């Protein structure tokens, strides 16, 4: 088990492939390939799920190479299943390493989740129990993946809808300890934090107080849906709409505390024209600039807008 000192791993790509910290990016979708290559939009960077490009050849890789020639790239994985009891599959890590070596992403990230049991794979990112045993497993698998890739991973905080009966470690402390054991960084999904704070009635600012913000190297912003669960509203992280004002308020709080880091506008459903995503990315640039200028004065607003605390 990797439960002692930090394991040194290379941080990432060269500085020339990194976007400015105060520039936002968007997820690269096949529907937008031609628009992007024809217009070369003013944008900080793009992010892709590497599982969509684990191919020997073909148009997706050619389009990705063309986009990478002009923009920094981030790889955001969904297939390592780092919370599973078994180590990440070696063949998956081999294919991921080929992409990392080929495209030199400025960060490689994954989720605090599991989706695999033996040879069975589930099409979802399932929650990891906040226990010491689960922390040991997660730390071991993150360290294995980093050793294989020779890159530091960023681990993303999840969106959750139920709580486990037995939770030994609060989530922000779980993630903070994971960074201490493995040397990994963190990806803070602000929409996930807002969704969880609303669903579980906790104060997102108090959560941030216990979280290793200095380890955050990327931020995600997205929209979510509101469903009904037996007469109670539940927020569902579906990446199917624009970022709402309450999430922008919490983002201001995060940037005021952490400073600027590359921020992604995520959209995976109800995909709008590329121009709408570009406008949201430019809005993220402006909001971050305002938060930095205000010196993090959004704390009270973030607490009030979340509806809890």
Structural class: alpha/beta
Uncertain residue ranges: 1-9, 296-309
> In terms of quaternary structure, what is this?
single chain
Order of helices and strands: EHEHEHEEEHEHEHHEEEHEHH
Mean pLDDT: 89
Discrete helix count: 10
Enumerate the strands of the largest sheet in spatial order, edge to edge or round the barrel.
1-2-3-4-7-8-9-12
The name of the CATH topology is TIM Barrel
Instruction: Report the C-alpha radius of gyration, rounded.
Output: 19 Å
* DSSP, total strands: 12
What do we call the CATH homologous superfamily?
A: Divalent-metal-dependent TIM barrel enzymes
Strand fraction equals 15-25%
Largest sheet: 8 strands, parallel, barrel
CATH level 1 name: Alpha Beta
Total separate domains: 1
Q: What is the rounded distance between the termini?
A: 37 Å
How would you briefly describe this protein structure?
This protein is α/β, with parallel strands linked by helices.
